[in-house]
Design goal:
two-stranded parallel sheet, alpha+beta, 11 helices, single chain, globular
């Protein structure tokens, strides 16, 4: 069968499974990205995220993740919520992506179905599915597949829906006609994300010092939070959406249609006092299937204590 046909089958299945966009790239070594990644690591922008320095070659070469890989399929899945955490009940905030069920499970299930449907339609196809779960340069592949460009906050921006979405990939040994890469940067002279970041984590256009990012502090860092950052978190206790909330492209965000991403009903009722006195029982109930489990109760309490006014 022809690569054009394979590409149309991939896009048809993506649409059936609720993905908003599907882009296709040829699986090859990302030569342009190698020096950028090396420079980022050399500046220790990964902070205590030691895993970022592992598997350097695999990050840049999809054929090292899937033997015989010919195609990288990049997918976008919306998570912009219909309903946000109500203001007035509590000052504490969590990133919108963590409102519902952990996206790793939700999207991984969809990708498994994707591969099954692909085999039914095409025949024997070997490949692997990725959701923020392996050394793969998601944003760079998505840009190469024409799904958007990397904004000044380093996130992928899409002209039709902004940036409140998850990226996922299939690396497969099926040849499919690639899409044209996105070569234009539509941020222009706008610097709203850089200006709004309270910890100055965006060190230059498209480059984030991960070790200064509020998401890093509240999720990845397991040590005590540095006192130099006291008063700079703007009440974010898990993750941070500041650079996305101020981005003009996110005026195009539309609510998602994924029931599993709906705001947990108990979250709507939490007050400052409830958060400050949260027990293991409440934490386990509210965040049973949530990405917030990554911090564990101990980490969440540490973050809340750090936010409390002395």
């Amino acid at each position: 069968m022809h690569p054009d046909h394979h590409a149309s089958v991939l896009k048809k299945i993506a649409k059936e499974l609720g993905f908003d966009f599907c882009g296709i790239s040829q699986a090859e070594f990302m030569e342009e990205e190698a020096p950028k990644l090396e420079a980022w690591l050399n500046k220790n922008y990964q902070g205590k995220m030691g895993y970022m320095a592992n598997h350097f070659d695999k990050r840049l070469d999809p054929t090292k993740l899937v033997e015989g890989a010919k195609t990288v399929v990049s997918l976008i899945y919306n998570y912009y919520p219909k309903q946000k955490l109500p203001e007035g009940k509590s000052d504490y905030k969590i990133a919108k992506y963590a409102y519902g069920k952990d996206y790793h499970f939700v999207i991984k299930d969809k990708l498994k179905t994707f591969l099954t449907l692909l085999k039914e339609e095409i025949g024997d196809v070997e490949g692997r599915a990725f959701v923020d779960s392996a050394p793969i340069m998601e944003r760079q592949w998505a840009q190469k597949a024409g799904l958007g460009w990397q904004g000044k906050n380093s996130l992928l921006l899409n002209r039709k829906m902004g940036s409140f979405f998850f990226l996922a990939e299939l690396i497969i040994d099926l040849e499919a006609t690639p899409d044209a890469p996105m070569t234009k940067d539509y941020c222009g002279t706008c610097t709203r994300c850089i200006d709004a970041c309270p910890t100055d984590a965006i060190v230059q256009a498209g480059v984030v010092d991960g070790s200064k990012c509020i998401s890093y502090f509240t999720i990845e860092l397991k040590d005590e939070l540095p006192q130099s950052m006291k008063g700079k978190f703007e009440n974010w206790m898990f993750g941070c959406d500041i650079c996305q909330d101020v981005c003009p492209w996110n005026r195009f965000s539309q609510p998602h249609h994924e029931p599993q991403f709906e705001l947990h009903p108990d979250l709507k009722e939490m007050t400052n006092k409830d958060w400050e006195e949260i027990t293991q029982e409440t934490f386990s109930k509210v965040f049973q299937k949530s990405a917030v489990k990554r911090t564990k109760l101990k980490g969440l309490k540490r973050n809340i204590n750090f936010l409390k006014k002395d």
